[in-house]
Amino acid sequence: MLLKLKDNLENYGSSLDSWNSTTPPCNVGHANWHGILCYEGKVWGVKLENMGLKGVIDIESLKELPYLRTLSFMNNNLEGSWPEIHLLVGLKSIYLSNNKFSGEIPYRAFEGLKWLKKIHLSNNQFSGFIPTSVTQLPRLIELRLDGNQFTGPIPHFHHLNRLRSFNVANNELQGQIPHTISRMPVSSFSGESPQIPNPPIRFLQHRLHTYNMHRKKHIPEEMKNKSRYRSAHMYDIK
Fold first, then answer.
1. Cβ neighbours of residue 50 under 8 Å, at least 6 residues apart?
2. Structural domain harbouring 10
3. What is the DSSP track for 35-82?
4. Is residue 187 part of a domain?
5. pLDDT tens digit string along 136-162?
6. Quick one: pLDDT at residue 28?
7. 96 pLDDT band (50/70/90 cuts)?
8. Which has the higher per-residue pLDDT, 52 or 230?
9. Cβ atoms within 10 A of the Cβ of 58, count?
10. Sign of CA dihedral 90, 54, 120, 80
């Protein structure tokens, strides 16, 4: 199964020499293959980061791993369109930041991924609208889409969302910041897109500033000068 994943990757040199048919990826207590995370003899994660990898991610081979929970290919040179991760129904985290993925992400890309908690797609070349299915993930706590070419509005998240880390900076977004995520730091929405000198995202900064000024009026007087209050309210990740 995983050997098919290897066959679709390039530029790994000798890094994946341990991936061979004579040795299983996992034994009880430890992993035999580089970049494979094991638990009780089962593959629960693939972590191939900072390797200069090229090629594509073969989802079909990963689909055969029933205990797969985390997938990370950060800091490589992988290209192509959005991989069909909705086929990996038990996935809890996906890290694809700092690659060369491009094109639109289908609006139903995250449907059925009820266990998914962390999505990191920063610094790629994704375009089009942010897929609305991402707002339907009941356990989502981290969403990083900064440094892409997303357009249109930020979709509305449920008012009881669990988001602790959120970033859509350096895109080409327009419109208002949904009130359900306006508690996030200004840096989550600001910045300039490398593709456009004066992106519409600047409009969002004004919206967030207005919200913060309104909220400030409701902070008890004794708390206004205490930085700990602001830090705990905006950055608590527990």
1. 74, 75, 76
2. 2-174
3. TEEEETTEEEEEE--SS--EE---HHHHTT-TT--EEE--SS--EES-
4. no
5. 999 999 999 999 999 999 999 999 899
6. 87
7. very high
8. 52
9. 17
10. negative
CATH number of the domain where residue 142 is located? 3.80.10.10
Q: Which residue is it, tokens 């992993």?
A: 31
Confidence of residue 117 (pLDDT cuts 50, 70, 90): very high
Residue at token pair 């913060």: 212
Cα 76 from Cα 236, distance rounded (Å) = 30
Tokens of 35: 């970049």
Tell me the pTM.
Answer: 0.81
Within-domain flag for 121:
yes
Q: How far, in Å, CA of 195 to CA of 84, rounded?
A: 27
DSSP 23: S
Pure H helices in the chain:
2-7, 59-62, 202-216, 227-235
* 3-state secondary structure (DSSP) of residue 11: coil
223 token code pair: 């708390």
